[in-house]
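Researcher: We're teaching a course module on how sequence relates to structure. For the next exercise, students receive a sequence and then see the predicted structure as tokens, so they can try to spot secondary structure elements on their own. Here is the exercise chain.
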Amino acid sequence: MKIINLGEQNSLLNTFVAQIRDKAIQKDSMRFRKNLERIGEIFAYEISKTLNYGEKDVVTPLGIAKCSLFTDTLVIASILRAGLPLHTGLLNFFDAAQNAFVAAYRKYGKDNKFTIQFEYASSPALDGKVLILADPMLATGSSLVLAYQRLVQSGEPLHTHIVSPIASEQSLGYLSKQLPHKKVTLWVAAVDEELTNKSYIVPGLGDAGDLAYGTKL
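Model: And here is the predicted structure for the students to work with:
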């Protein structure tokens, strides 16, 4: 698995990441969602550089222009509900992409231990397509791996791009072991060192789903 940390470069991306972390700015849920959306757009642009391209003749009012356009068929997948703003940003740029969704959540038991519960999954066939799997945060990485395993039941992607703005060091190690093959690229904007005993990332940003859509039971 290849890991690309765009946050190591000086760019506007780091401003948006700083804003989704800022507890004062987080009070505005619309701005939080919009910043995740804009982060998704930046990742989409960077991913576009890795796709396969071909030349196409485009008819203009005055003639024919030869344009280099990507030829891959894309599927954008997100883990509900926190992944939706990021999904929107990716879809803003890859507007012809097909879409997939996985509903998953943590179910806590004793001693702050949890299992990942799946309630819903919907995906088109993935054979020969480029899969972009979005999740705002990677804490342990376990839910994303399970989501990936569920999605590839719909076929073997040509390549998988995992997009997660904030990840823990632990999750990078876990994903590298679980998804070692070369057909996976992980895109992040920040890597944090610490996890709490409930597996929340520190400094992280809190619960992305709650910040975007309100608290839940």
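Model: If you want an answer key for the exercise: Helices lie at 13-21, 29-48, 84-93, 142-151, 169-178, 208-213. The two ends are 36 Å apart (CA to CA).
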